[in-house]
Amino acid sequence: MDFKKRKIKFRAWDQEHQLLMRLNHIDCNKGELFKKDHILLQFTGLHDKDGEEIYEMDVLLVSVEKWVVFWNESRNGWYYSPVSNPDIQVQLLNNNAITAQRFCNYFELQSLV
């Protein structure tokens, strides 16, 4: 079997300054990644219709509706739900990611309200 290395990328929500940012470094303790006063948001490996990277907690426009991306622990995969109805959960696959457009991050959306 051929092993292909993959990039594991993160952005972070700076809780103190209420800003979404790229990080220069992330701390690691016993294999767990963290950054003080930040919420780490992992890259899904998918891109939207404009080629923008999709990260955890990004808000995607699907037609005119806003959907938020998240990791579903029990189903072990990336899912997304309408912001207005989080009970609806759809697996985020490449064929639906490339039809959506990244709008903003959920934390940015909440800070506007």
The separation of the N and C termini measures 50 Å
Which series of helices and strands comes N to C? Answer: EEEEEEEEEEHEH
Helix coverage percent of residues?
under 10%
Question: Proportion of β residues?
Answer: over 45%
The chain-level mean pLDDT equals 95
**Helices and strands: which structural class?**
mainly beta
| Overall morphology | globular
CATH class reads Mainly Beta
Low-confidence runs: none
Instruction: Characterize the biggest β-sheet.
Output: 5 strands, antiparallel
- How many independent structural domains? 1
| Gyration radius, in Å | 15 Å
Question: Care to count the β-strands?
Answer: 11
Widest β-sheet, arrangement of strands: 10-9-8-7-11
Corresponding CATH architecture = Roll
At the fourth level of CATH, the homologous superfamily is: YopX-like domains
- How large is the count of helical segments? 2
Using the coordinates shown, work out and report the CATH topology. Answer: SH3 type barrels
Walkthrough of the structure:
With 113 residues, this protein is mainly β. It has a single domain (10-112), classed as SH3 type barrels, CATH 2.30.30.290. The protein contains two helices and eleven strands. The chain has helices at 94-97, 106-112, and strands spanning 10-14, 19-22, 27-29, 32-34, 38-47, 53-55, 58-62, 65-72, 77-82, 90-91, 101-105. The strands form three sheets. Strands 10-9-8-7-11 form a five-stranded antiparallel β-sheet. It has a four-stranded antiparallel β-sheet with strand order 2-1-5-6, with no helix packed on it. The longest helix is centred in the C-terminal third of the chain and has 7 residues, at 106-112. The protein starts with 9 loop residues before the first strand and ends with a helix. The model has no long low-confidence stretch (mean pLDDT 95).
